[in-house]
Amino acid sequence: MAGKASEIVLSKHELREVTAFAAACAEVVLAVFEADQPHDSRPRAAITAAWEFARGGERGKSLRDTAWAALEAAKGTDTAAARDAAWAAMSAAGAAYLHPLPKATQVKHILGAGAHAARAAELVAGDDRTVGAGHVEQAVHRATPVVVDVLERFPAAPGGGGRVGELIRMLDTDLRRRPSTQPPCAATNS
Length: 190
Description:
GO molecular function, one term: exonuclease activity
Strand content: under 5%
Organism: Rhodococcus opacus (Nocardia opaca)
Protein name: Exonuclease SbcC
Number of strands: 0
Keywords: Exonuclease, Hydrolase, Nuclease
Number of helices: 9
InterPro entries: Imm5-like
Oligomer: single chain
Order of helices and strands: HHHHHHHHH
């Protein structure tokens, strides 16, 4: 996407890489949501749609609709962990809509799925912050050099946002510090 000088140029390939990263982060905690709401397939559909876009599909209304549906699914959960897992799925589908605006708030499109997944895992583990830190570390290894390059074009993650905001900033800081020669771990493509 080319644009005004104040915009960040993002290719469709880069958007696909960011979306694949987000989908891989979100699917790690999909079972948390499904244990809470076994008959609600909306978060799974959002992650599937994110993978479809990442693998060459179109970025259209159906992708956006699955993100909104996962957000709605979060409202019907019985636990905070399931809610964060649904938000991770929503963030995965929403990653395809990263805007080329040089604003710190856009970092949430890149890292939101990873942060919500880490928070869901923490909550399942009795709010164990070391579990969240472990998920952040896994996400850092999951990120491709393209994802890191895109992230580095944006300002650092903004303050606020409670624990999820903290996890976004941890992930942001760790990814920006990652040596560019560090290869990513293979992402799960379920």
